[in-house]
Amino acid sequence: MFTYCCENCDQSEGLDLGDVTLALCPGICNSSENTYIRSCVWLACHSGFRCAALNHIGTLNNVQVTSSRLFTYGGTAEYAAMVSKLMALHPDTKLILIGFSMGGNIVTKYIAECPFTANRFTLGISICQGYDAVQGATLLLQWNGLRRLYLYKITENMKKLLRSHYDKVVLPHVASGLVDEKKLWSSTNLLSLDDTYTRKVNGFNTVEEYYEFCSCRKLLSEISVPMVFINSVDDPLVPNSLWEIARKYAEEKPDMLLITPKHGGHLGFMEGSFFRPNSITWLDRLIIELCNAALKLYH
């Protein structure tokens, strides 16, 4: 279910960090094998941290799913299972929870939904998430910043995963009459795919109801753990209007921070030349700096 890296190397900046675990949650259709996860894990391990990265259901080609569905955009059960396993394996570890894009939404929801384990969490970091799936779905249909093109690509990636695990996650629902297979494969955007497949398989009456369930927006006030939100101003998928809700809470809550770099795109934050970017990104370094700062401040 998750990929585990425990080769703790030299402590960064000469700090005695103790036992610290970073629990990573990737973005939509992504897993521990994606480049941005691998580069973050590499730097974290070489900075003295243990890492675990969730593999969303259906995202690993060499692992067959055992459920009748893929991951959801806001379900926290799989991430919660990973964190629980980490706490059982390492009862004294300090946990830092980090989510990327869709994973940022899941991490935020999980922290808000689990106040009874909040004392185990040092920090939560959410990167490039959209907070409100209902509002975000409408914005993704627009052509501003080529969002509609990105949406088409994401939809095709979802369909690719569905085809990869067809016998488990599609065929039973087609056979039962729940899903119209022709409509499913003809979907050109996530709203259509989610209305035809995702919301039905997960037991929701409408796609709006499903998106409302997935959104962390309504739970931000419940967060009791220090939290950092990172949203770049030039993110083509997450326009500024979506992260204004995070700004509101960051202004009101002393342990909540919103960082809005001018550039970075959606999980980009590359450094170096255009043709030969550095393998370690600005975001990777920022994550380590935030982790070190939180450990100094709260421990």
Automatic annotation (TrEMBL):
Principal subcellular localisation of the protein: membrane
Membrane topology: Single-pass type II membrane protein
Name of a matching Pfam family: Abhydrolase_1
Domain AB hydrolase-1: start-end pairs: 22-272
Keywords: Hydrolase, Membrane, Serine esterase, Signal-anchor, Transmembrane, Transmembrane helix
GO cellular component terms given for this protein: sperm flagellum; sperm plasma membrane
InterPro entries: AB_hydrolase_1, AB_hydrolase_4_CS, AB_hydrolase_4_sf, AB_hydrolase_fold, ABHD4
MF annotations from Gene Ontology: acetylesterase activity; monoacylglycerol lipase activity
Keyword Transmembrane helix: yes
GO BP field: acylglycerol catabolic process; medium-chain fatty acid biosynthetic process; medium-chain fatty acid catabolic process; sperm capacitation; steroid hormone receptor signaling pathway
Active site as annotated: S101 (charge relay system), D235 (charge relay system), H266 (charge relay system)
Location within or outside the cell: Membrane
Family: Belongs to the AB hydrolase superfamily. AB hydrolase 4 family.
Protein name (database record): AB hydrolase-1 domain-containing protein
